[in-house]
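TonB-dependent receptor
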Amino acid sequence: MLKYLTGGFFFLLSSALFAQRITGSVNEQVPGSKALKPITGANVYWSGTTQATATDTIGHFNIPRSAQSNLLVISFVGFRNDTVKIGAENDLQVVLQNDQTLNEVVVRGNTSTIDRLSPHQTEIITTRALAKAACCNLSESFETNASVSVSYADAVTGSKQIQMLGLNGTYIQTNIENIPSIRGLASTFGLNFVPGTWIQSIDVGKGAGSVVNGYESMTGQINVEMQKPDSREKLYLNTYINNFGRAEVNLNLATQLNEKWSTGLLTHASTLRNRVDNNKDGFLDMPLYTQYNVVNRWKYQSERVMAQFGVKALLEDRLGGENGFEKEMKGSGNVYGFGAKVNRYEFFSKIARLFPDKPYKGLGFIMNASLHDSKSFFGMNNYDGTQKTLYGNLIYQSIIGNTNHSYKTGLSYLLDNYNELYKDIRLARNESVPGAFFEYTYNNLDKFVLVAGGRVDFHNLYGTQWTPRMHLKYNLTDQTTLRASAGKGFRVANPLAEYYGNLVSSRTVQFRESIRPEVSWNYGASVTQEFKMGNMSGNFIMDFYRTNFENQLVADMEDPRYIRFYNLEGDAYANSFQAEANLTPIKRLEFKLAYRLFDVKQTIRNVYDENVLLPRMMVSRDRVLFNAGYALPYDKWKFDATMQWNGKRRIPYMGHVDEHHVPDNLTSTMSPSFYNFNAQVTRTFPKWDIYLGGENLANFRQKNPIMGANDPFGQNFDAGMAWGPVVGRMIYAGIRYKIVR
């Protein structure tokens, strides 16, 4: 009850407050016509202050009036700055002029930044940050990020998992342009399905996300913005190769057909055909694979309508296991093999009704349909899974009286059809979930911002679900920002897909009971302190989040003979503390230093059927990240280096078990801590980039990542307990080529 009273109190309090804002749009004139084209990402700021914002994807901006200045500056690379003296007006239309006098201009920005205006604790990873490493796909895009860590889920399949706030990526709602995408069966390899060169930016938000995007965000929300059809880069080519034999090519094309229509084609092909067994355990350190991935998207932009739609298609084939395994040996029982084929197809559309005379108002409809079909085998065991999804979200936004009080409301629908078969275990369900939501925002000159929302969803299998969430932001000073959040999350787990890597073992899968949905509450607070001393600038960020579970899927692997799935009985929580400092001591030199502490525990049933609260397995308690980047004038040369220290983590008992010795949850061990070093150097030319880099430069490898590798059909075989790098030092090189409009 306190949670709802608190939200109601802030809602009533904010309704009594009042302030004024300036809204408007920023455009450029289309050459050869009188038509205007919106400019995305133009800077809008009050002269002589730090109060700033940027235009959105349709060129609109919204900024509070300033008591320190009446000169509003609008700027964008390649255009002349425009300064507008503001009087009583509050709705502007700005047309920037091309600056033909510019020769070679290098615009630098922070590689990542905290969204100053958002009440959510959100870090924006820019294309500059993505270029610090090869970033061949989304799973490799967080190497310099302190909040998200990435590791291999096992030592055979090549699937990767991310962690944030002490919990794995299934508790993070991962969206592609605000469409829930990496979820369900796609959680196994989904991070590998988004090529890095397709990514324009990544928003990493901590805590429960907005109710507008659904109910599945429990510890955070990641939104990936893709390259747009009207991108200024009409051609972008990237090639990559590493010393293990992995090669890939990416080609992005963007064409402006006329003043209203544009189209884009994003393509990707990658492969690894070289068999690598550096630790000599008889198993491939990485699976052989081939992936083809393509997106064709279209965009229509007029004064009153914006529409985007497109199709995606992905084909991937993986083969791993023992070094001598070939596909035709499947099921022989003599050589252990792993294989996975994934076919995935999607259609998406986004339609928005715009109101040029009322830029605060809008009506949008998002629709996505996808088919995910996967067929896998682990030795003698087959696992096939199919997921059909239909998603729709109708969103209306407007104001209440004035632009200090705004709201979003709408209707959503999610249809999921799952059909999985592992050995003799069949998991099939059909989820039909209509829902409605309302989210209110109060904004007082961006000094105090409150977002309070709730949604109700009518789940055909699990009944009515109510999901409230609230976010607060308060600028204590111009340099100090406080944030707080609280919210509920709800999701239906997919045990086999989420613990896919643990199927590469001799463990017997057991479902002790019907699995209920996971329900959690997340609470958090953060402080951001910015500073500037002479030419040196930077910020310090400290946050704490706690996630409490009302119910959680327990994947009990304390007995090496079994994977037991059951519902939580007792406590489960995750505490996360992080301190991060970003410093620019001189021009073109950037440092990042971060420390993260996790306290994550879950109640497990022991052999006496008693509940025992234990540290969650495979979660590192401590992590330190240090990143340094330096660029010569005009970015001719760029140098980046990253050091990660990963602390110890708990590993369940992995020894011999028989009728005389059964583990009692007290015989688990701890993995050693280890360092990981990455570095990259980039040479830039007007249209070309050439980069050379390395990962795991210290050549650290987990010893014996596969238990019982010499007898993979025996009872002690387990490849699902990888806690460190499986492969050693990796050196890579690549070329980027682009043509700008």
